[in-house]
Design goal:
The chain is mainly beta and about 650 residues long. About 5% of the residues lie in helices and about 55% in strands. The chain has a single domain, classed as Maltoporin, Chain A (Beta Barrel), CATH 2.40.170.20. It is built from five helices and 37 strands.
Length: about 650
Amino acid sequence: MKKTLVAAAIIAVGQPLLSSAAELSTAELSTAELSTAELSTAELSVAEPPTEKLEQITVTASRVEIPLREAGVSVSVLTAADIERLGYSSLLDVIRILPGISVSNTGGAGKVSSVFIRGESNYRTLVLLDGVNIADPSAPQVGAQFQHLQAADIERIEVLRGPQGMMYGAGAGGVINIISKKASEPLSAQLTAETGRYGTQKASASLGGSRDNWNYDLSLSDVSTDSFNAMELDTRGERDGYDNLSGSARLGYQFNENFAVEGQLRRTETDSEYDNCGFLSLIIDCRNRYDQSSASLSGKYQRDSLGHALTISSQEIEREGIALGESLYTFDGDISELNYVGDSALAGGQLLWGGEYEQQEFTSTFSKQDIDSLGLFAEWRGNIAEKVFYTFGYRRDSLETEDHSSWRASVAYPLLLDGGLLGKDHQLKYRASYGTGYRAPSPYEVGLNLSEGVPAVGPEISRGYELGLEYQLAQLLQLELVYFDQEITDAIVYDYSLGAWGAYGQDDGDSQSEGVELSLAGALGERFDWYFNGTWLDSLDTAGEQRQQVPQRVYNLGLGYSLLGDRLILNGNWQQVEDRLDFSGEMLDNYGKLDLNAAYRLSENVRLTLRGENVLDEDYREVAGYYTAGAAVFAGVQLTL
């Protein structure tokens, strides 16, 4: 019954718009003036001026650049302009306003956080930073430590929703692709400083340039905060602070118009205070040290219709828990990867192929475990009369426990319609996709099951499909409506009945996430723009009960207004979160939170910012027993060369 209602809703949204268009006069804009790529509603807001007609491109949907109008899958995009206008310093706060995404945080900046895409857990989401997998193999379940990522040098974020194991392999129940800024001018530099409540201090600097065949980028970010008391059990009320020092360096060389190489280094050092550590009693004087280093070297060759890309990368993570000044534990994790992607125009379409070799390693005081995997994949992208665009791909992974196959198919049918509402050309796109994925056991899960008599665990299996409708009326209105249904089989869970102290086993039955995502955005003139997105989710575990920690409804409403000749820009975001069941079985209260951001361009090179978070001082919880930040104001200045 629910699926029938959703299908009816999709038809109902499309029909009034089309019928109204037929009653109006011929469009004022010609077909040539309106880029068909503007159909995509994945952009959060209208960051570019209404007169700019740029082809929207995604690199995450198929690992090579394709127009978003041809994509049959759900991709959300945030540009550098969107990130700047939102004003958040943490990427965790930036992505939480996107459709299909929810976040939980245990007590403020730098504390353990989880990102859910369509109800799937953090360790089922692949996070790439400039093409490098930044998951943490030192954790029991391998997932990115998103709470340590800063927004200072980010150019673009693309979020690919739904199972994507065919393209990206293990852990890709969804993909978050983060792309850092890359200088295109001979010399560019930027300095930013910000201060605010909770003793928060932030400073960042970037330097980049492109000259002759060389290009380079350097960035450094330092964030420190006294924060607030994280845990309700801590009756002393002492603050749990956080420090984050992050830096990156990139150097590239263009040998000729066909061949280029690039190398990159990244380093993040964090120190986070928290409560409730120790094995036998509550200790509130706790610290967690987290250091992450990565290096990558890539080469790209493109000639005519044939392209090759090869990347080798390595990542090291060190974690240490400290209580009362003494070390509690140390965990190390390493990921080494070799990736190759090739593409070629062929018979009116495009063939994409590639392979990945990955080694993950987990090391603790008591054990060491590593796992290897090799994946090969291919995808065909074709079209029917340049009107219907489709893809079909297959992947085979060789794992240490067993081999696994994944596949994905998608179709997109974009239409450019003349004489739309208000005399504007309008566009419509129907799309559908079906994909499968998996999560391989982590090194920790494999190592814990090596005891005699404990069976080995195999991969989790995921599958999902979606139906989507997109509509755009010039810059006045963009709409995206998506119905999705996905499930997990053989989920890896901890079983106390296995072995002497428990081990990991496979859960019986299927867990399911089914829901609807609605995204709306538009602009009224050149000064005012807005967006709204909502996610309605029905997320159940194998017992048919609501999944813990996953809100079933999340809404975002954003408004932007520019005045004084665009020198002053005002933005706000309201988020409403409802129906979240905590790990304890407690249903958390619904809440709404308002954030505001203002930016004033004092001169061509000086920009002043004023940001308010939770300005209505809402008292809410994302995880039971952990506090959240109250109303806070932050002021900053940005100098640009």
